[in-house]
């Protein structure tokens, strides 16, 4: 058998060059075709369909505000960027964006459900049902009388949960928990709708709840001993171990003799003992101060 003759080097170079040229031309044609397809008007995003329960937004306004931020056509649009653009809209919590052939984007939105204000009254922050803080125009808040919650950064979910535990307890007295604050030292401070301020103390959620329940069970009887209703409560301090101190509006702390304290020491729910000057807590001329079982005044 005769062996095939080896091709000369110049022939090999010519064949390689021709192959490279053919491949280059094919790639150029393919790139041109892709370039034309991507810019073909038929592949433009013709419609944005917005779905979801929208209370503070409407689909027309959202499409008008977000469309200028969408770059590319149906195939090249960045869905992550589109989702971020929708989530930048006021009141929008979550957005899901997907392609919907032909030429449409389907957007599923979830709005924030505001349950409380967050931070100082001068701010515009709100807390949603998930305990997340978000910024919005407080003038758009529909439910009136939302409570105001405050606490360290990152504590919004904890404060919202505690508010949910304490609200029914105060409602049993016909009072509404208007504000709740978690202090930097871990203590809780409640503000009621009659402007009364209650220091709840620190500890775990069950401990704070138990302390508050003990207070609400005895408050009505203590107030009745002074001829007052629960609504006369001005302030209370539950940080005393085994008891609490309180002030009631409209009850004088001045006894028959000038300068003689007449504060009372509230004991168990079935008794109230007249306090001596050494047992009484300081009051003002228009308030009374009582303490429930103050034999041990250690603080939580």
Tell me what you see in this structure:
- This protein is α/β, with parallel strands linked by helices and 300 residues long.
- The chain has five helices and 15 strands.
- The chain has helices spanning 9-38, 59-66, 79-87, 156-171, 205-224, and strands spanning 47-51, 92-100, 104-111, 114-118, 125-128, 133-135, 148-150, 177-182, 188-192, 197-201, 233-237, 244-249, 264-266, 272-274, 287-292.
- The chain has a twelve-stranded mixed β-sheet, with helices on one face.
- A hairpin with a 3-residue loop joins β2 (92-100) and β3.
- α4 runs parallel beside α5.
- The longest helix is centred in the first third of the chain and has 30 residues, at 9-38.
- The model is unreliable at 253-289 and 294-300 (pLDDT under 50).
Shape type: elongated
Number of helices: 5
Q: Main sheet? A: 12 strands, mixed
- Which strand order do you get reading across the main beta sheet? 6-5-4-7-8-9-10-11-12-15-13-14
Order of helices and strands: HEHHEEEEEEHEEEHEEEEE
Rg calc: 36 Å
Q: Beta-strand percentage?
A: 25-35%
End-to-end gap: 105 Å
């Amino acid at each position: 058998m005769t062996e095939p003759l080896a091709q000369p080097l110049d022939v090999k170079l010519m064949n390689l060059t021709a192959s490279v040229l053919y491949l280059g031309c094919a790639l150029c044609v393919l790139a041109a075709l892709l370039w034309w397809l991507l810019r073909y008007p038929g592949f433009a995003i013709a419609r944005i369909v917005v779905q979801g329960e929208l209370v503070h937004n409407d689909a027309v306004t959202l499409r008008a505000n977000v469309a200028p931020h969408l770059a590319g056509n149906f195939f090249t649009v960045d869905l992550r960027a589109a989702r971020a653009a929708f989530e930048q809209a006021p009141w929008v919590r979550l957005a899901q964006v997907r392609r919907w052939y032909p030429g449409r984007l389907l957007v599923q939105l979830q709005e924030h459900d505001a349950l409380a204000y967050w931070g100082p009254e001068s701010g515009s922050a709100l807390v949603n049902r998930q305990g997340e803080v978000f910024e919005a125009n407080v003038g758009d808040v529909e439910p009136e009388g939302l409570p105001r919650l405050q606490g360290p950064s990152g504590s919004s979910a904890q404060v919202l949960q505690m508010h949910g535990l304490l609200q029914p307890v105060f409602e049993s007295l016909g009072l509404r928990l208007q504000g709740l604050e978690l202090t930097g030292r871990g203590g809780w401070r409640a503000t009621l709708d009659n402007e009364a301020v209650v220091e709840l103390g620190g500890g775990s959620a069950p401990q704070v709840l138990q302390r508050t329940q003990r207070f609400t069970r005895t408050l009505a009887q203590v107030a009745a001993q002074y001829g007052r209703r629960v609504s006369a409560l001005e302030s209370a301090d539950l940080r005393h171990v085994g008891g609490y101190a309180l002030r009631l509006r409209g009850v004088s702390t001045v006894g028959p003799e000038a300068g003689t304290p007449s504060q009372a020491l509230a004991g168990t729910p079935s008794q109230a003992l007249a306090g001596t000057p050494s047992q009484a807590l300081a009051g003002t001329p228009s308030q009374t101060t009582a303490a429930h079982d103050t034999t041990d005044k250690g603080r939580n």
